[in-house]
Amino acid sequence: MTSSFHPPQRTLMGPGPSDVNPRILEAMSRPTIGHLDPLFVQMMDEMKGLLQYAFQTKNELTIPVSAPGSAGMETCFVNLVEAGDTVIVCQNGVFGGRMKENVERCGATAVMVEDEWGQACDPAKLEAALKAHPEATTVAFVHAETSTGATTDVKAMCDLAHAHDCLTIVDAVTSLGGTELRVDDWGIDAIYSGTQKCLSCTPGLSPVSFSQASVERIQNRKTKVQSWFLDLNLVMGYWGKGAKRAYHHTAPINALYALHESLVLLQDEGLENAWARHAKHHNALKAGLEALGLTFVVPEADRLPQLNAVTIPDGVDDAQVRGMLLNDYNLEIGAGLGVMAGKVWRIGLMGYACRKDNVLKCVSALGEVLGRVGANVDAQKAMAATLASYGE
Ligand SMILES: *Cc1c(COP(=O)(O)O)cnc(C)c1O
After folding, report:
1. What is 22-267's CATH topology?
2. Which residues line ligand 1 (CB under 6 A)?
3. What does CATH list as the number for 270-389?
4. What is the pTM of this model?
5. Mean pLDDT, residues 329-358
């Protein structure tokens, strides 16, 4: 007989999922009610307000898509892009490549603007592409590239896109709740995120938000959105203002309790405080990792606090070290993705996982394990550097 599954208690310091706050897990176990129950509808309305706060937007169409971040990505592309369109995609890592896939699957042309992995997207290159492609309707890029830990200047990119009459699609899966993000001030037309990164919620939902200009484009499409499930014209009837709340799909009720709780936690902490907390613990982790002799992939000015990509020392076996951290310390850190596979570790400091005890645990565990596999490290010096960053 198969018995119940009891996972161990890990410390999740990879690229997501991150540690889930116990308050969120508790919220998830509350009684399931009907998704058209007036009390559930009331909770959804509150959630919209909480999401608007998290995104710093007044956009009416601000909702969680009932599927993971990748579905939020797809929601943006299938609704805003039609066959024959031209979309400029700025790529500096794995997720920009997925945007290209999305554009092409919409029957549109993706004009790729490439930057080195580990660098921010370069607004000057975007400007050149906009000039070369006056037919472009949309610009898409990733705010926080989780494959490398690089951030991009969203406002500069959006200003250029708008100067050339393009709408903007921005991936904020890893940035929401972790680093400064201002949807309205920065001029983002369509944005998607995820629950399992800096919101520290369970995976499986994708908060999205659409500007008025986006909504108008969606309402004036020449063709139907090819995805029935992700067609916002239909979803708006379920989530929209004054919507009939007609049945579209069964909302993932308990998962939405979890997201609601995580957004209440964010509201209680305060967005700016959450951003400052990520920066503070990143600085301490950085001090420790650098004292271990590890070097960051991304130049300091463009580094994300919540995703620390560092180069694996020569002669050290990537999988062996990650295995020892997992088995001996219950600590998960991330492997490299794409061209960085085997070359870097990605150490996440996301949401609830972004805490002093985790930073200390990570630096001490990594120091011990690196010493055990024969790397030339001074684990004590690394701990001292980490503590010094905290003023101790
Ligand atoms: C994690 C991530 C995604 C995909 O989210 P899923 O929830 O795994 O589908 C998309 N973009 C970026 C930048 C991410 O970090």
Report:
1. Aspartate Aminotransferase; domain 2 (3.40.640)
2. 16, 68-70, 73, 95, 142, 146, 171, 173-174, 194, 203
3. 3.90.1150.10
4. 0.97
5. 97
